[in-house]
Amino acid sequence: MLEPERLTPTTLLVDDLGVSSLDRFELLMDLEEEFKIEMDETDLVTVRTVGDLTAYIKARIAA
Known about the structure:
This protein is globular. The chain contains 2 helices and no strands. The mean pLDDT is 91. The chain has helices at 21-35, 50-62. The protein has one domain: Orthogonal Bundle (Non-ribosomal Peptide Synthetase Peptidyl Carrier Protein, Chain A), CATH 1.10.1200. The longest helix has 15 residues, at 21-35.
């Protein structure tokens, strides 16, 4: 299990966390529900790190 304190903005979703394409889809669904936002799956291609994901979510919330 991953300890939350080990996550940093530069943590890579695929290389460091082992996020697969199925994991990415499930994450997208969970984040949409949690934050009441709509996320475009094609946008997530550019999301490589925890920091990228955080910035993307903040931008969607602000939109």
